[in-house]
C-alpha cells in the first residue's frame, strides 16, 4: 500500500477533476491518497509520501508561475520518489498534439523544469464559455477561432479523453 500525493495547479477546475479520477483509481488499488493544490502542498512535508503526481493546466500558453516555483523548491524530493506529471490544455484536442512528445506545452515544461518526471501524460482540457469573465471569454474565443476550435460562447466543450485518464491513473497506481 503506497502513500500517494497528488498536487494540482488549475485555473478553471478541469485539472482538479482529472486528479479526482486518478485519486479514485489509486484508492481502488489500496493506496492512501492525499490531494492538494500546488499552493497547499508546501505544508504537507513531501518526504512522507512514496509517490507524487503533479498536474498542471495551461492558460494563455503557459503553466502558472507557482508551478515552477514549487518544482524549483522541491525537485530533489520529487526526483527521489516515484513520480509523474501531466499537463492539461485545449491544444491536446488535436491528435497530433496530444502526447508528451508532440505537445508544445509539455515540451516547454520539460525545457524549463529542474525536474524531469518519470511518467508523463497530456490530456485535452475543457472550454466552459459561460463560466468565464468577459475578458477570458473574448480571448479564448479568439484563440479558438484562430485554431479552428469551438467559438459558440453559450457552450461548454469538454475534450478530455477519460479512457486515457483512466489508463494513466492505472499505470501510475501500478508503479
UniProtKB/TrEMBL annotation:
GO cellular component: plasma membrane
Name of this chain's protein: Protoporphyrinogen IX dehydrogenase [quinone]
Organism from which the protein derives: Shewanella pneumatophori
GO terms assigned for molecular function: FMN binding; menaquinone-dependent protoporphyrinogen oxidase activity; oxygen-dependent protoporphyrinogen oxidase activity
HAMAP family for the chain: HemG
Needed cofactors: FMN
Cross-referenced Gene3D superfamilies: 3.40.50.360
Xref: InterPro entries: Flavodoxin_dom (IPR026816), Flavoprotein-like_sf (IPR029039), HemG (IPR044264), Protoporphyrinogen_IX_DH (IPR052200)
